[in-house]
Amino acid sequence: MTTAAPGAVVRYEPRGAARELFKERSSEVVIAGPAGTGKSLACLFRVHLAALHNPGIRCLIARKTGVSLTSTTLVTYEKKVAEDALARGIVSWYGGSAREAACYRYSNGSVIVVGGLDKPEKIMSSEYDLVFVDEATELTKTDWESISTRLRNGVLSWQQQIAACNPSHPTHWLKQRTEDGTAKMLVSRHKDNPAYVNADGTLTPKGVDYFNKLDNLTGVRRLRLKDGKWAAAEGQIYEAWDDAVHLVDKVPHTAAWTRWGAVDFGYTNPFVYQDWWEDPDGRLYLANEIYFTRRLVEDHAKQIKEVLFYPSGQPRGQVPRAIICDHDAEDRATLERHLGLSTSAAKKTVSDGIQAVQSRLKVQPDGKPRLFIARGALVERDPELEAASLPACSTEEVAGYVWAVKPGNAGGLKEEPLKKDDHGMDTMRYMVAEKDLGARPSVRWLN
Ligand SMILES: Nc1ncnc2c1ncn2[C@@H]1O[C@H](COP(=O)(O)OP(=O)(O)O)[C@@H](O)[C@H]1O
Ligand SMILES: [Mg+2]
Fold first, then answer.
1. In terms of domains, do 302 and 205 share one?
2. Are residues 272 and 194 part of one domain?
3. Which of 85, 95, 122, 319 has the highest CB neighbour number within 10 Å of its CB?
4. What's the number of domains the chain is made of?
């Protein structure tokens, strides 16, 4: 497919589900399949070409959080879809304002607004002809339905909202929508991606690399991201976890709340810092999370300081009552030195810690669990983890955090977690163990 609008050169060869997407006129479309099949690229081209060919239309590209949209989907848009149009000034970037959402403006009057459903007021105050939501399984059904009320700009002769996603659990609301006929499902496969698979089915050199990465995945992540199955995790440790219950948009902390920090050190594996708030009833809320590989402790310390302090040195809210750490003595000393705060050693026993987390996840008679994670908690997405399809924050670990299978035993589960993709889960357990299983030390300023 080569286009079109005066001056802008775009070459793109859609295959399979990507090709079908360009012919599809249903008002709701879901393009789903394993990681790396070309779903995001296809949807971005769909929106970009529609904007180029149809003067004056209004489009939206969204993801659950604005931060993740910028670091993933919009990078692909700028580098692989609109690079030439941006360079020639056919498309220009407008950074937005306090009230207005950011957007790409086309010289023919078309607009692509971009933003996260975590700041709905900005993107929901407009009307659109065409909407693309990436990683749409992160949305709530209400998010998705509220988008449909904005699809009435009426400049394009058809209005459409497109979701791209990897498979999630088998009863996910988005999959159910395609099963009851509300949305049209397009199944995307690796053979649809010419960057990885040649027309004769053999892999390209890039494809060989990519499949090597996918081959390292295990369990439910492998089933979903490599095999493309809407699969449930077997032996999931936190079975009670439910995005609809445990994820919140905002942590409503006040001066009456207590702040905590928890750390799991790592370099090749992710380093994790979790910024927890405890409400006066003892419920824990994860407000900010640093989850990053291949950075030095001192660099993490800088980022933690940005979370905890204003540039003036004034605490944002308050200083954590304790910073509970994994036991590495050298890393702890480095972190303390660069933060100027003391840390304490985590209570690391596994089985009682897991039980304590499990009991916090249960919904109590007041209708709430005792542990929540804020959707936008992740401070910065690690592109290396993203490229390897590995979890990039704690919420992405939960589904794959499973009991280990006893070697040589047909299907029996060991009473210990599989030691893989568990860094956020360990950190969360340290936090909960601190509160529920032991005595509490407190943070001192080090001078
Ligand atoms: N039709 C295509 N032609 C060239 N490259 C493609 C095509 N489809 C996908 N790719 C490339 O393959 C990689 C994965 O595509 P992406 O859209 O990010 O996959 P997904 O969203 O399914 O995980 C990207 O680098 C993308 O540019
Ligand atoms: Mg994608």
1. no
2. no
3. 85
4. 2
